[in-house]
Amino acid sequence: MPWRLLRFALNKKHPEPRMFTFHEKLKASYDVVIIGGGGHGLSAAYYLAREHGITNVCVLEKGYIGGGNTGRNTTIIRSNYLTPEGVQFYDESVRLWQDLSEDFDLNLFYANRGHFTLAHTDSALRTMRWRAEVNKHYGVASEVVGPEVVKEAAPMIDITCAGHSPILGALYHAPGSVARHDAVAWGYGRGADQRGVEIHQQTEVLGIDVEGGKVKGVRTSKGYISTGKVLCAVAGSTPRILKMVDVKSPIYIHPLQAMVSEPVKPWLDPILVSGSLHVYISQSARGELVMGASLDPYELHGTRSTLDFVEGLTSHMLEMFPFLSNVKVMRQWAGMADMTPDFAPVMGKTPVDGFYLDSGWGTWGFKATPVCGKTMAHTIATDTAHPLITGFSLDRFRNYALTGEKGAASVGH
Amino acid sequence: MPANALAVSPVADIATLPDPSAQKAAVAKLGIADQSLTPRHGCKGPGAAAWLESLGLPIPPQPNSWLPVDGGGLIARLGFTEFLVEGPATLIARLANTPRSAGVYPVLRQDVALLLGGAKLDELLRQTCNVNFRPLDLATRPVVLTSMVGVGVTVIPELRNGQPAVRIWGDGSYGHYLWETLLDIAVELGGGAVAPHSFN
Amino acid sequence: MKIMTCPLNGPRPVSEFHYWGEVRPMPNPATASDDAWADYVFNRNGAPGLKKEWWCHTPSNTWFIAERDTEKDVVLKTYFYEGDQ
Ligand SMILES: Cc1cc2nc3c(=O)[nH]c(=O)nc-3n(C[C@H](O)[C@H](O)[C@H](O)COP(=O)(O)OP(=O)(O)OC[C@H]3O[C@@H](n4cnc5c(N)ncnc54)[C@H](O)[C@@H]3O)c2cc1C
């Protein structure tokens, strides 16, 4: 009976439990302050509490949780990267994802779809062969397949791409998946909250006090906090925070845009990425086509979206799927991507004692949310970089020891 | 086949012409002609202007402008120090065979070169290019470097038989795409492919 | 559509341009320490602000400087490079 249902809903005796506690005020001090209530910050808070018993922690978010890139990304999860460091790290993340819904008791709609990176040139095919070999060496399911396999997995595809750039083959990665992005932030947030972590939304970090090379405290829009440990997990705002502690980095910010179509009947199961056409596509559980392209062409610290992007993306998408010409675009948006010269992240300790960095996640960091939280929590708790992230340290640049992931990350996020 | 010209037009295999009466009808609305085989020469560098002058060519004083060449043809100044010369085979051969002086570098010109004109030209330009050609003063002989349907092009606007026309040069490897796209639009507007002399 | 004004070709849509990052003085590679050189090669002034940047108008290959607010995406002025000052 709808009437009874309504009465039930309005009855104060059965309030819907909040996902996490609202805290009126900040405490004067915390053991750890986490800047950024995206998936990464919340995940680090969760593992700090769950695995290291550190619960006197606050997460400061200037807007609302998941409102940054966590809630703006196209949710592709995969581990078929190019460097040994990358492959091992992302593989661990994919493993964590698989149990996360149960961990949280929250449905993340983690859907294993399979992921194809299409090759339209011989050189692309060679990079894919290389990636497949590195992947297999580390036990990650990854293989080069012919165009007929692509056609079978996505029968609507024009395998010649309008005759301009025929598909010669693909890198197929069976574990490729998608998940509900906001649920990830909320799941980690609730889990951290239940273990005693405080989440403060609408609280912006304005400055960080450093004395004698050590973190002393954090100035926020809601008052001062003293703390000896700060984790910076702010994606597109990383350079602003680094300026507060006077640490130089190669991170630069370009917007990354994406869009979705109106919902249509399910017709596309796998995730498809084309590096040559600079586009990728998957179909969400609601039927929307989630589509994206490569990075915007110039630095910008804002989230405006452009018609140029829609024009470029759709023209290439129609080469692959001509029948989409009747489908309407519903929404488009952008996030600020924190890019690095080698397309690998910047994680771990920094020249400032007690200041930890989880950044440089550019266009590819959603999939890493669980493993970043886990490894950063370890790094903060023990003040030593977790073994999985030593290849991503900030000083790799000073040492000219880059971790080149461009071949696996520039279009396929 | 004139010396120092392309052996084949980049659009040779697709730029086929309908019969003359159809061409006549098309050119009034919007004709599109392939001129890729016209001989041309490109050079650039700090010494380019002086070298071309020493060979008797007029030098357009303003960047992005052009001048006619005695005996036929034109010289276009692309930016500050780059030039495109088009004209009779003897002129182009002379440029190609005279040793270049210091500070003059050759520019390979394997253009797809098109001529478009007719009453509906502006409608085509508005769909394909971001530059508004109408306010340009043709008496100043402007050269416009822009992009058209995504391809970098050099454009000279002019009048042919009282009708607006443009000459377009672009990278020959985009020839098919450029020709097909522009021809499609021309046909929609009631025009079509014509021979270059249709504009005379 | 975003308009950028090339000092030679005039106002054009930004899609006709290529962005090449902030203008940065290069240390002398023969005398710079490894650290100073790495700093030049990799580190960037990543925070938003008013920056002098290299841009190129691609159809004409014209390089020039744009002064741009990278937070608001407002171009304040454009001009030709006049050498290191
Ligand atoms: C369009 C798009 C598509 C993408 N697609 C994929 C994909 O398919 N797969 C993939 O793996 N990755 C993808 N990514 C990348 C991925 O979204 C990010 O790397 C990841 O979400 C980063 O998470 P985060 O928690 O570090 O940052 P965010 O979610 O951005 O969280 C940072 C938070 O910090 C807050 N903050 C900033 N400054 C302050 C301050 N001074 N004080 C307090 N709070 C502050 C912000 O408000 C924000 O909420 C995509 C990104 C975009 C933009």
Count of the separate structural domains of chain C: 1
- How many helical elements of chain C? 1
Measured on Cα atoms, how large is the radius of gyration of chain B? Answer: 17 Å
* Outline of chain B: globular
The CATH superfamily of the largest domain in chain B is identified as Probable tRNA modification gtpase trme, domain 1
Write the H/E string of chain B, N to C: HEEHEEEHEEHEEEHE
> Would you identify the CATH architecture of chain C?
2-Layer Sandwich
Low-confidence stretches of chain C: none
What oligomeric assembly is this protein in?
Answer: heterotrimer
Strand content of chain C: 35-45%
CATH topology of chain C: Folate-binding fold
The CATH class name of the largest domain in chain B reads: Alpha Beta
First-to-last CA distance of chain C:
34 Å
Regions of chain B with pLDDT < 50 over 5+ consecutive residues? none
Describe the protein:
The complex is a heterotrimer of chains A (413), B (200) and C (85). Chain A is of the alpha+beta class and 413 residues long. Chain A has a domain at 112-175 and 252-339: D-Amino Acid Oxidase, subunit A, domain 2 (D-Amino Acid Oxidase, Chain A, domain 2), CATH 3.30.9.10. Chain A has helices at 2-10, 39-52, 84-104, 122-137, 147-153, 181-194, 238-245, 307-320, 369-382, 406-409, and strands at 32-35, 57-60, 76-77, 111-112, 115-119, 143-145, 169-173, 177-178, 198-200, 205-211, 214-220, 223-226, 230-232, 252-261, 271-274, 279-283, 289-293, 329-339, 346-349, 355-359. Chain A has an eight-stranded mixed beta sheet. A six-stranded mixed beta sheet of chain A has the order 9-2-1-13-20-19. A three-stranded antiparallel beta sheet of chain A has the order 3-8-4, with no helix packed on it. In chain A, helix 2 (39-52) runs parallel beside helix 6 (181-194) and helix 3 (84-104) crosses helix 9. In chain B, 24% of the residues lie in helices and 30% in strands. In chain B, the strands form two sheets. Chain B has a six-stranded mixed beta sheet with strand order 8-9-10-7-1-11. A five-stranded antiparallel beta sheet of chain B has the order 3-4-5-2-6, with helices on one face. Chain B has five helices and eleven strands; from the N terminus they run αββαβββαββαβββαβ. Chain C has one helix at residues 34-42; strands at residues 3-6, 10-13, 17-22, 50-57, 62-69, 74-79. Chain C has one domain (3-79): Folate-binding fold (2-Layer Sandwich). Chain C has 85 residues and is mainly β. Chain A binds chain C through residues 238-240, 242-243, 248-253, 297-302, 304, 306-308, 341, 397-400, and chain C through 1-2, 13-15, 18-19, 21, 34-35, 38-39, 42-48, 51, 53, 70-73.
